[in-house]
Amino acid sequence: MRLTPGPSRDIDLDTVDLFDLDLYGTGDPHAVWDVMRAQAPLHHQTLADGREFWSVTRYEDVCRVLGDHREFTSERGTVPTHLGQDDVAAGVLLTSTDPPRHTEVRRPLGSRLTARAVRSWEDSIRRSVTRFLEPALDGEVFDLAEKALLLPAIVTGPLLGIPRRTGKSSSSSPPWWPPPPTRTSSSAAKPPPWRSPTMNSSDTSPSGSRTGAVPEPRTTVCSIT
């Protein structure tokens, strides 16, 4: 995907398929979004199988959609491929959760992710990212896409107080993920600092699922900015 809009050209929104993932992988969606903002800031598309969705591209509209969880939900999917399906992460992952659960999950992270707190970790994060990129300088093949799977854990681990793991890490074992803790009476009573106090064994549905009940469908919107 281009990171900046390409040369302006005539774009017929009636022929644009916003559900086509190739548009975002190898196409130029920014040019499409520019036309949408100018001509159709509230855009409707119906797929061949009958599914349909709306896209909002104007700032004020996007703010309303993202800020009104009573009319628009994040628990019915936040990407086009979720259209018409329940999101298995609903009520669990922060990005797939509505208030008040969203607020409960976010609160323990708030103090760690303020601009002031992050500034105090800046030097440590820079050193970690430098170490992460150093193997790319040896002249051998360096698959950035594969290695980048570790980057979120490398950066957020220290922010959340996760101790650095000793030994060699891999794509499935980031350096900031410690091995499972030994269960003791003291460790069982006190959750690790990166664990939300709301994440406990009682937070399950009758079937034992951590997702809980999926809410009734509300408006399905694909927000594009």
Spatial arrangement of strands, main beta sheet = 1-2-3
Task: Classify the beta-strand content into a percent band.
Answer: 5-15%
Shape: globular
Rounded to an integer in angstroms, the radius of gyration calculated over CA atoms is: 21 Å
Secondary-structure element series = HHEEHHHHHHHE
Can you summarize the main beta sheet?
3 strands, mixed
Parts with pLDDT < 50 across at least 5 consecutive residues: 176-225
Mean pLDDT: 74
Helix share of residues?
25-40%
Give the number of helices: 9
Our measurement of the CA-to-CA distance between the termini, rounded to an integer number of angstroms, reads: 14 Å
Number of strands: 3
Give the class from helix and strand content and strand pairing: mainly alpha
Task: Draw up the topology in text.
Blueprint: H1 22-25, H2 29-39, E1 42-46, E2 52-56, H3 59-67, H4 101-110, H5 115-120, H6 122-133, H7 144-147, H8 151-159, H9 185-189, E3 221-223
Parallel strand pairs: 2-3
Antiparallel strand pairs: 1-2
Describe this structure in words.
This protein has 225 residues and is mostly helical. Helix content is 31%, strand content 6%. The chain is built from nine helices and three strands. It has helices spanning 22-25, 29-39, 59-67, 101-110, 115-120, 122-133, 144-147, 151-159, 185-189; strands spanning 42-46, 52-56, 221-223. Strands 1-2-3 form a three-stranded mixed sheet. Strand 1 and strand 2 form a beta hairpin. The longest helix is centred in the middle third of the chain and has 12 residues, at 122-133. The protein starts with 21 loop residues before the first helix and ends with a strand. Residues 176-225 have low confidence and may be disordered.
